[in-house]
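Schema walkthrough. Field components (list of strings):
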Amino acid sequence: MHPWHSAGSRVDKAIVEALHRHAFRYGDDGGPVVARGRSSTIGVSWGLGSTVSSPWGACCVATEFLMGNEAIALGAIAAGVGVVTGYPGTPSSEILPTVAQRNPGRVHVEWSTNEKVALEVAAGAAYAGARTLVTMKQVGLNVASDPLMSLAYVGVKGGMVIVVADDPGPISSQTEQDTRTFGLFSKLPVFDPASPEEAYAMIGDAFALSERYGTPVLFRPTTRVCHGNAPVEVGDLSAPPAPDGFVKDPKWVIFPRLAYQSHLRIEQRLPQIAEEFSDYRFNAVSGSGRIGIATQGISSAYVAEALAALGDAVPEHRLLRVATPHPFPRRLALEFLEGLDQVLVVEELDPVIERELLRLAGECHLPVTVLGKGTGHVQQAGENGVDSVTRALAGFLGLEVAPAADCSASAGEGAEPPVRPPVLCAGCPHRASFLAVKEAMRKRKAVFGGDIGCYTLGNAKPLDMVDTCLCMGASVTVAQGLHVVEPDAVHFAFIGDSTFFHTGIPGVINAVYNQTPIVLVVLDNSTTAMTGLQPHPGTGETMMGAVAQQIDIATVLRGLGVKHVESCDPLNHDAAKAAVLRAVEATAEGVSALIFEAPCIHVASSGPRYVVNEDACKCQLCITRLGCPAISRVDGKMRIDDDLCYGCDLCAQMCPFDAIERVEPTEGRA
Amino acid sequence: MSMQTNIIIAGVGGQGTVLASKLVARAAMDAGLRVRTSETIGMAQRGGSVVSHVRVSDAPIASPLMAPGMADVLIGFEPGEAVRSLAFLRPGGTVVTNAQPVAPVAISPASAAYSGQAMLERLDGCGARLAVIDGASICAEIGSLKVLNVALLGAAAGLGALGFSLDQFETAIRESVRERFVDMNIRALHAGARSASA
Ligand code: SF4
Ligand code: SF4
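Field assembly_structure (string):
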């Protein structure tokens, strides 16, 4: 039997043993098993032995099958959160809607316009004593870093947990940045959960720590924790207690003098927190021997699987699991390092634990070699997995691993499955918008600046309409820089509605003020589509259900001084093309704006169906220009997939031979 | 004696793979077993390849993700996606796949035609037990395109590959699906099971 195969009883037993030997808590019954087995030196209770650390109800009410993000949300409610803010971003997006859905009534939940705004709203609430939760993805923290850095100095009264979801891979992100490193930079404590059930329990710990030290804390799950699912024991979710309210005090006003004092206070408390973390229930050292393995988060699950797969051949070893990477649990780590010859550090993203262990070894003159990303023993970029970790461990331990036997080899050679990059949906209005601009600019020199959202997928062929993409809001500003250097080209900035509100507006003001004549194209589809259809200021809905005033993008643009502002339906191809030409003309007067208004197909209902009249079909233009997933070529003729076609009419308008015909739906669609 | 069933569910974003893994999880919880799953959520949901890992066991499960060769069952919502995930399947495992291919987006007249048949042939030769399900006819029979997931689950359960009976899945469906869709899904479950044994 090859080492990965775990269906057999021997390996099963090995997994169980490995889990127990190292006392990790993987959905085991009862309370957390990662007890350090001694009381904290500074008398702080981490709620050992209870599954729920909420002060308002420590009993398990029900076992629910939860996604990690849902577990975080319910953990926060159980811990008495009063205010939840955030901005959607994969893999964090499901946390906030879950709070809204399970709102016991007194929790204020809002999608804020961006992460900086979210963090600041939460800061105000925390000043007034409410427990607050802020949710975002890792690059969102870059946007929120301004208030974050200062808030670390000012501090909070009500507990504040900032959930920042990291995305090793990356699977749906523009960077592989590590929020643990941000914790080091901002000097804030960081929690790093390894599973949904652990995330649920840890959120309560994070709130308690935040309040004890009056500091915001970072809570950093990764994709596999966010989007992993497991049964979780959920406690009492009744309404949180009302906070005391805001008490005026000079400490809420940051000044250089205060900042100096705060900086000193932070430096003094970090070693205290590190000391406390050395006894934290989810940090653990186990085993014995002269070689060690250090790990964190989801990688600790891969390590457990790998050790079980390598089985009896694994020599005696010590294991360190770090659930609080900052401030580093120094005493615990020293206990781990003492007497070791070699350590392999298995972690994702930055070598955070590796650096800390190296530093400790140097500081304490320990004769131990630390291996990991820095030495090429663990991959430097991308996601870990059971197989990559097993290989790394086998290499480290000097064991042979037979490559896993699986069914791919026996399937033999032959046709490969088709490449399937993500694409704009059939009927997506963005396709029509891109096409209108592309056709209108066919003979002109033009650069198409893209932004973050579904419409980034407009880069795919045959549209090929995204020349740049940097970060949220940058379509508007990068276009200005390009124009300054290359004024003879038309510079377009494509930005979605939610992104426009997020960070697009300051860029527009900049263009108007500095008289840089770009063409702003707002793709207004009435939702935040990519991350799962969240409402935003332009949609007239909030997470509290109330109907809010809708913020009209055209009015905003006119108010900012954009003289040419036109709205049109991109699905009317000829009219849309004409509107593009008018917007380009208008750049003679400065910034011009075109708002393509058509809802995402997921927030609207579908139209009629379309079929290809094979006798009339000649040119294949619908394939070479549109790239609609509903259209394929079967035996040299075009065919429209009835199940996928949304009825947007674009292909019918494009077809020069009128070969695409509209048919009324015969029955309701599933 | 411990039991463990590892299932890979592979499809194209939008095909409803997530409900299938939820139903297995529900059945596992009802049976007092442990379960861990992992989903593909994000950009790939827009027509990209999506894979769910579902792990059921009576002992603690560490990793939500499997390594190559660890899966006992591979459920393909589309033959090409089943082929793509074959590396997860252990020799002698079970493949249950929908017969109908989902064509990738055609971007040029020259884009290679994609043949579901070629994929089924590769599956046939892979050394696993194979059940090819005519998902389109089942959906037509039930009257909804949304039941492909439950039909495939029914097929795998009917073959005894999942460790849960059709009755257990019926209960799971009643517990997880909105009331007005329950009947339709239960019919699909049995239609799937019938077609696998046919
Ligand atoms: S989800 Fe909406 S906005 Fe995104 S690609 Fe599909 S139709 Fe377009
Ligand atoms: S009408 Fe044409 S372009 Fe629109 S979704 Fe249907 S096939 Fe695609």
